[in-house]
Design goal:
single chain, alpha+beta, 9 helices, 4 strands, 44% helix
Length: 203
Amino acid sequence: MNDGRAALRWSVELYTTGRAFRRAPFRPVPRVAGALRAAGVPTFERLSAPEVRMARAYASLRVHVVWSTRHRRPWLDPEWRGRLFSVASGLAEAGRARLLCAGGVRDHLHLYLEIAATDPLQALVTTLKGGTARWIRSTFPHRAAFAWQEGWAGFSVAPGEDGALLDYIRHQEVRHRDHDFAGEYLGLLERHGIAYDLREVWD
C-alpha cells in the first residue's frame, strides 16, 4: 500500500509539473493514470522520454545594431549608400546572418539583423565594419581616409517590435531632419536600459 501511495504522489508531481520522467522511482502505469484522470488531475500521459527529446536547436535572434562614422563625419554619400547596404548584406550572409533592413544618413548606419544562435554578435559586427570600411576606401578615392567609430550599440528585437523598427530604419532621412545622431544614439541606450559614460561613448 505504501508503494501505491508513493507511486500516486510521484505521478501527481510529474503529470502536473511536466518534470522529466527520469526523476520518478517507477514507470507510470495505466491504473495510476486512470486514478489521476478520475480525480480531475491534468496529465501528460503522451509524453515519454524519447518523445520529448529535441533533435535540433531552434532560435530566432534578431538585433538592431548602430554605429557612426569616425567623429561622426558626413562621409556616407547618398549616391552610393544603397550599394553600401548591398555590401553589408553580403558580409552578413558570409557570417551566417541575414540583413533584414538597412538605413542611415551621412554620419551613421542602422542594420537590422537575424543572427545565428552559435555566433557571437561582436565577431559579426567586426566583420561588417571592417568589410564595409575597406569597400568604401577602395571604391571611392575621395573617401580614402574613411573609418567607422570604434564602438557600436546592439539591441535585441522582440517579434512585436519588428514593424515599428523597419519603419524607423527605412525613414532615417526624415527623422534626422530635426534630430542629430548623438541624441538618437543616447536615446536608444537609455530606452534599452544600457548604462553608459559620456566620456566613453564617442571616439
